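User: Sequence recovery, please. Input:
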């Protein structure tokens, strides 16, 4: 792989693209540092976020049984970290979807799928923090909506990038539009003060085995592997790129399976079935 775009390339390519500043509610939630009362109060004050949050919490994925009607109850049942993650998702979505809501909606659905799959992989393997996995899944492609603002044909660029059997997704993307969604997403993470581990995953989620090997520590390596595996289980190559196979997965699967001790086919299939059952087959509640 090449060394990637220079800072000057990125600056040029992003001219006219708005990377939204970190929204005040997220800054306030971060400042509240886990203080449940303050966080419930902050979320409750934003009626739009509250309504969307309750809708998500009452979805079959959480399987909470009785209907949750208050933010306080949602925090009691799911924990403050899980609720904060959902709020992150909602705010990220509203910050980046002011225009083009329709074009974005499929994209956000895929991000939510990856976030949930990553959370389940983390829970099942016990090797990754589930909350961190969810957040990383949600943010990993956050460069895409930023780039859609500038390149109305971006969905075609993504298709072409995934379709090249010899190329790497982001290399093809750079050839077409100079930058790629991983580096743009990384810039957004930096602007929003995301932690280093999440920022690394956003920056390197298409980096293949090289990226896995250069992760600064074991936790980062496992989080990156978790997101790559979650993307594969969620079939982003089909959903987002409209391809029937993933060339990138073929190159990286050995390393992902090693990371989670899934070299035995049966172990891999069991995890895959569990994740798909939990995330995608929700009709039984
Ligand atoms: Fe991506």
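Assistant: Recovered sequence (285 residues):
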């Amino acid at each position: 792989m090449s060394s990637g775009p220079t800072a000057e390339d990125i600056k040029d390519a992003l001219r006219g693209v708005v990377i939204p500043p970190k929204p005040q509610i997220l800054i306030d939630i971060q400042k509240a540092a886990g203080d449940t009362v303050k966080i419930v109060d902050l979320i409750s004050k934003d009626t739009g976020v509250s309504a969307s949050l309750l809708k998500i919490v009452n979805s079959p994925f959480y399987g909470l049984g009785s209907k949750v009607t208050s933010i306080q109850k949602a925090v009691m049942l799911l924990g403050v970290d899980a609720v904060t993650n959902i709020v992150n998702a909602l705010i990220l979505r509203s910050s980046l979807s002011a225009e083009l809501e329709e074009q974005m909606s499929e994209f956000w659905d895929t991000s939510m799928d990856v976030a949930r799959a990553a959370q389940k992989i983390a829970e099942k393997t016990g090797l990754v923090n589930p909350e961190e996995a969810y957040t990383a899944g949600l943010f990993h492609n956050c460069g895409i909506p930023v780039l859609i603002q500038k390149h109305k044909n971006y969905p075609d660029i993504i298709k072409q990038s995934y379709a090249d059997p010899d190329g790497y997704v982001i290399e093809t993307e750079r050839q077409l539009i100079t930058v790629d969604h991983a580096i743009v997403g990384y810039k957004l993470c930096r602007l929003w003060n995301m932690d280093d581990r999440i920022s690394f995953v956003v920056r390197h989620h298409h980096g293949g085995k090289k990226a896995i090997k250069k992760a600064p520590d074991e936790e980062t390596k496992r989080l990156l592997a978790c997101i790559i595996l979650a993307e594969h289980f969620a079939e982003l190559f089909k959903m987002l790129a409209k391809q029937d196979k993933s060339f990138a997965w073929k190159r990286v699967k050995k390393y992902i399976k090693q990371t989670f001790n899934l070299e035995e086919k049966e172990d891999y299939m069991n995890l895959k079935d569990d994740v798909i059952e939990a995330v995608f087959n929700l009709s039984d509640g």
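Residues 141, 181, 205-206 surround fe (ii) ion (CB under 6 Å).
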